[in-house]
Task: inverse folding
């Protein structure tokens, strides 16, 4: 039997009783490590720490051990499985899992969120079926439904979009058309849009690669500030008024964790950046000739008085609000902060 | 402290460890009984059994007791809370929950699915905040993300719709515009649409009411067959080609339960009905003059050879497929049955 077990939003005690039974009955347990991370202390986007993949994925260097302890299974019995492993070494994962065979064992693949929220694992399920292995899915919460925590109805969202880190040469903006479709519907209220923000945990450094060295970049997690800036940059380029500086948005961080944070503000307010960013900019300004500050930078320093974005460490998600119902309006008021 | 605890898809062991801790720490535990039901043996739409609300909501007359046993809490310590109770008697629910007060207790409201997947409980959260009660939300799976089990990407759904039981005089079809918007997007592939099907567990019998008697109707749960027929009836009326008889759909039943069922077929195939319905129609036909069969009925009997819809008891959901990716196509092939 192959169990695909959702870990929910990521704390060890977010697993379900059904999932825990599956883990404890399994001869081998893998933790999928490429589509999400467990929350906890992870380096933020600006950090240059060279965290190991394990510490990033599990939230601490001893994260896998913490999971083993929480699940009452032997130490070192959870193995990290990256994309290549799941896709190319599925024979190893599925070994001896055939239904009714003499040496049949259970195997569990742990997945942060819900195991089937993307089609990523359908291929593994199909391979399992081909070799006569039964598959059991243990569902759990994912950002797709837990985003309801901000007070916007989960049933009033249009298609979700992904926003990846822009580089100087690569700025994919296919999200723009989707947001446009969600917000400018014929004869109908605008829908909300959930923006899933980029996670880069195992990227190779392209500069080092050009020298023949395979060195990984430090992990990066997009925050709501960068997402807002990228969104506004694309609106400037495309100019179809899918949204604008005044568009109301909700920033969410570490949804479901004890230190979950939610903030409401306009895209422009989010774009101004976190207190940390603004402090760094102010320090740069102090150490430079005033004349070197360009107008945009100066404006950001002056305007950076709103705390919409004080959301702290990753993971962040951003919601672009559509038309609000009265209840949604009231629910969002909870997160509105006064400018200081 | 007020805990809003998601029960996930409904079996007792679908609760998370975090949710279980909340329940076990609570002086009072309520089960929200109006937006969903726990799975198990529930009367289907055609049944005339007069099941009690408790047996319907919890799946068996001893359902609440089974939950108490599963959670290792005292017998009879879970109270059913219907809509009126949650909305109008929130003072009773929130009694002595104020943060830091001398007699502070924890209280848990159990909710099938995810507690914040609709805005239903935002009002209770706001009332709690007003009186100084901390609120902790324990997320869990809901149909919104668990629908991924069929193999269609959860990120490629447009706005979800609700389909309610039509009567002779009341046939609300606001879902039509939403499906149209999901399927006919400008410059873009069509999105999938999740159709949430009506549940009526505490409806008063209007005929009895007109005689001054308050008698509840037996519970009804819409199945995929009726949903498909209502959808096609509305298309016939509206005629904007939002979908049609050939539109591919996925029927899902008891998602996440051990006896979960999934079937793929066209809307027309689903509309033909279940084996039970077809057998009943055949029996009626045998006991009547052949001439009494109208053309539509005869056609349904003749065409009813596809088992797309053999999904069994509630709860059912229906997905209208948008444009399929290759992986989605392959994933759906698993559920395709051969006509018999």
Result:
């Amino acid at each position: 039997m192959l169990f695909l077990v959702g870990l929910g939003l990521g704390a060890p005690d977010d697993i379900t009783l059904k999932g825990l039974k599956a883990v404890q009955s399994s001869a081998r347990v893998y933790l999928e490590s490429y589509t999400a991370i467990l929350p906890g202390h992870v380096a933020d986007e600006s950090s240059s720490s060279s965290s190991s993949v394990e510490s990033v994925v599990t939230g601490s260097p001893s994260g896998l051990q913490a999971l083993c302890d929480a699940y009452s299974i032997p130490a070192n019995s959870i193995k990290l499985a990256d994309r290549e492993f799941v896709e190319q070494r599925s024979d190893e994962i599925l070994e001896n899992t055939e239904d009714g065979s003499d040496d049949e064992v259970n195997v569990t693949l742990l997945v942060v969120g819900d195991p089937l929220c993307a089609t990523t694992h359908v291929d593994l399920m199909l391979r399992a079926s081909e070799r006569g292995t039964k598959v059991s899915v243990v569902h759990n919460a994912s950002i797709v439904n837990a985003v309801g925590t901000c007070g916007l109805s989960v049933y009033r969202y249009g298609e979700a979009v992904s926003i990846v880190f822009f580089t100087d040469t690569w700025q994919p903006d296919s999200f723009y058309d989707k947001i446009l479709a969600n917000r400018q519907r014929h004869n109908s209220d605008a829908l909300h849009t959930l923006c899933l923000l980029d996670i880069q945990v195992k990227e190779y450094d392209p500069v080092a690669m050009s020298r023949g060295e395979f060195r990984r970049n430090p992990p990066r997690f997009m925050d709501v500030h960068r997402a807002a800036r990228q969104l506004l940059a694309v609106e400037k380029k495309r100019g179809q008024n899918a949204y604008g500086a005044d568009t109301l948005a909700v920033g969410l961080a570490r949804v479901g964790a004890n230190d979950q944070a939610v903030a409401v503000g306009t895209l422009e307010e989010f774009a101004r950046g976190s207190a940390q960013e603004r402090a760094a900019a102010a320090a740069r300004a102090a150490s430079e000739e005033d004349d070197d500050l360009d107008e945009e930078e100066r404006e950001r320093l002056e305007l950076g008085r709103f705390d919409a974005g004080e959301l702290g460490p990753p993971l962040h998600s951003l919601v672009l609000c559509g038309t609000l119902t009265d209840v949604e309006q009231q629910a969002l008021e909870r997160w509105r902060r006064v400018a200081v």
Notes: Residues 40-51, 302-306 of chain A have pLDDT under 50 and may be disordered. DSSP finds 14 helices and twelve strands in chain A. The longest strand of chain A covers residues 248-253.
